[in-house]
Amino acid sequence: MTISDSFHIGKDSCFGPAYEFAMILDTELKKRKIRDKVPMTFVTSEPYIGHLGLGGVGDSKGMLEAEMRQRHIKWLTNAKTTKIEAGKMYVETVDKNGETDGQHELDFSFSMMLPAFRGIPAVANV
Predict the structure, then answer these.
(1) At residue 112, does pLDDT exceed 50?
(2) Paired strand residues for 74
(3) Does 81 have pLDDT greater than 80?
(4) pLDDT of 70
(5) What is the pLDDT of residue 11?
(6) Quick check: 73 and 43 in contact, CB under 8 A?
(7) Are 42 and 76 contacting, i.e. CB atoms less than 8 angstroms apart?
(8) CA 22 to CA 27: how far, in whole Å?
(9) Which of 39, 44, 51 is nearest to 10 (CA)?
(10) Phi, psi of 26 (to 5 degrees)
């Protein structure tokens, strides 16, 4: 596996698998003794780490922030990916009013994105 630059995860609603993937990848890179060569950034539309689309579960905010700090995984919250080019992801962050408060260009060699989880139309439209 060749991962040399950065890692980004972006998603819209089913958040658990993104956290799981980030932790699994971090563990695998450590096993291969290359984790120090691979900066990781977790990009999420959640208002905070550990929100999980549920407003948090217990102390999920504190626990997940601590885990990500310990693993040296940076994060961007209230974020949306606006464009992707070869090796570059463009991300916009917004404030609590939905106004743009930051634009980020993230270099990467490997990226994983989860699509929005909307469910089947019959249930989603209820």
Answers:
(1) yes
(2) 41
(3) yes
(4) 97
(5) 44
(6) no
(7) yes
(8) 9
(9) 44
(10) -55, -45
Q: For residue 4, which phi and psi values (nearest 5 degrees)?
A: -120, -15
Residue 93's beta-bridge partner residues?
79, 102
17, 53 contact by CB (below 8 A): no
Beta-sheet pairing, 40-43 with 7-10: parallel
Task: Write the single-letter amino acid at 80.
Answer: K
Tokens of 114: 């989860």
Could you tell me how many helices (H) and strands (E) the chain has, helices first? Answer: 3, 7
Q: What global pTM score does this model have? A: 0.81
| Residues comprising the chain, all counted | 126
Place of tokens 């090796």: 87
The residues with which 94 forms a beta bridge, in sequence order, are 100
Per-residue model confidence (pLDDT) at position 3: 32
Q: Is 24 a residue whose pLDDT tops 90?
A: yes
Residues in contact with 56: Cβ distance below 8 Å, sequence separation at least 6, in sequence order: 48, 50
Domains (range + CATH), the chain: 7-124 (3.50.50.60)
